[in-house]
Amino acid sequence: MTRQELIGFCLTFPAAYEDYPFDDIMDAGAWAVMRHRTNRKSFALIYERNGKLCVNLKCDPFEAGFLRQAFVDVTPAYHMNKEHWNTVALGGDVPEEELQWMIGKSYDLVKPKAKGRKIRRDSAMRKKIVAFFSASGVTRKVADSLSEAANADLYEIRPEVPYTKADLDWRDKKSRSSVEMNDKSSRPVIADKDAHIGEYDVVFVGFPIWWHIAPTIINTFLESYDFAGKTIVPFATSGSSGIGETVANLKKSVDASATITDGKMLNGKQTKESLTAWVNSLGLT
Question: Could you tell me if 176 and 182 are in contact, meaning their C-beta atoms sit under 8 angstroms apart?
Fold first, then answer.
């Protein structure tokens, strides 16, 4: 992605505009600051440093640390708050799709929040939550879209110790993920137990497929709450694998009175319309 392509992508967001507060002219080396027109808050700062095209992006503090561990070219922000901002160097190990997702998250963090708006649920509607684990960001994007399509709350299943790129190397039999998946009793510790599952009737559970089943951290999550009488809807992402024996494996981690539906692979770009149609086909309302 070139500098102009990067600026052009940022301008696709509603009310985004291009600003040059640090330079008199918009030359190739100027810092381009992408802002939201309503509150003038910046969500992307584009510049060149050490011969590389870079962009500073706002992010959640936990995600900031995770992304730095996952990608060599994501580092604490240059000349900005390093807890809430990252610098991404383009042309390295960050896929364009992942970069676009990071820009979208940064935009969402700075755009004006609606005031006084409350979501009203039909009293007959079953309360839903989308709980997900995402190691590389792919499942996270699907979960974000699904929570909107299903009018569901969103909760991230986070490991107490984030996975690094080396941890996720499936070709290395000694990598953390390989060791965990080869030990059926493995239960990676989760960072918190704040999902408040007792408040929900339907729980969508999302994850990437590892070794033809769900990562064992999903078993940790299921065994951390009481799912008696609830409906669990698994969904997964994978580059090549199907859902395999995932559902049968997950049933061992919940009360027998819980209902686990057939799992659904949600690979590729998912539209709100397609996700809504799938949710409606489940007959959960």
Answer: no
**For 3-110, CATH number?**
3.90.1150.30
* pLDDT tens digit at each of 285 positions of the chain: 899 999 999 999 888 888 887 754 445 567 899 999 888 899 999 999 999 999 999 998 888 888 999 999 999 999 899 989 999 999 999 999 899 999 999 999 998 865 433 333 443 457 999 999 998 788 988 998 999 899 999 899 999 888 888 888 888 999 999 999 999 899 999 998 889 999 999 999 999 999 889 999 999 999 999 999 999 999 999 877 778 788 999 999 999 999 999 889 998 888 889 999 999 999 886
Sequential DSSP letters for 233-244: EEEEE-SS---T
d(CA 158, CA 170): 20
Amino acid present at 230 = K
Written as six digits, the tokens of 104 are 């979208």
**Domain boundaries 128-281, corresponding CATH code:** 3.40.50.360
**Alpha-carbon dihedral of residues 174, 175, 181, 184, nearest 10 degrees?**
50
